[in-house]
């Protein structure tokens, strides 16, 4: 993965921020929307694309486009830096292959302990019953 090539493939769009904020919000387009087309990317290998597609499936659109936005700062340039940093972190986390979980057996002592406690509970409930008169 080449970071500079990856950054060159990003598309930025400046939009007006939503919500309260007075004149500045109404005049200035400080919110930055980043979009990245995963399928058309040439900075990533096919294996990396598949891995990202599975790991980031909930964040991708149906066309495999990743969209991030940032309106934390009043500065458009600062918001662009923040969203780019966030994108790179997301890609790095998405490329991590999780270690396969190794199944373990339930220890015999745990099974014995569970059965013993069940027997004790059963005995308690037996003792609460009215005695059988024959």
Task: Walk me through what this model shows.
- The protein has 134 residues and is an alpha+beta fold.
- The chain has a domain at 3-94: Double Stranded RNA Binding Domain (2-Layer Sandwich).
- Helix content is 46%, strand content 13%.
- The protein contains five helices and three strands; from the N terminus they run αβαβαβαα.
- The chain has helices at 3-8, 23-27, 46-55, 76-94, 108-128; strands at residues 11-15, 31-37, 65-70.
- The chain has a three-stranded antiparallel β-sheet, covered by helices on one side.
- The longest helix is centred in the C-terminal third of the chain and has 21 residues, at 108-128.
- The model has no long low-confidence stretch (mean pLDDT 90).
Short characterization:
The chain is an alpha+beta fold and 134 residues long. The chain is built from five helices and three strands; from the N terminus they run αβαβαβαα.
CA radius of gyration: 29 Å
Give me the count of strands.
3
- Provide the structure class: alpha+beta
Overall outline: elongated
Low-pLDDT windows of residues: none
At the first level of CATH, the class of the domain at 3-94 is Alpha Beta
Total of helices: 5
What is the quaternary state of this protein? single chain
Lateral arrangement of strands in the main beta sheet: 1-2-3
Largest sheet: 3 strands, antiparallel
Organism: Flavobacterium frigoris (strain PS1)
Pfam family, one: RF-1
Domain Prokaryotic-type class I peptide chain release factors: 16-32
Protein name: Translation release factor
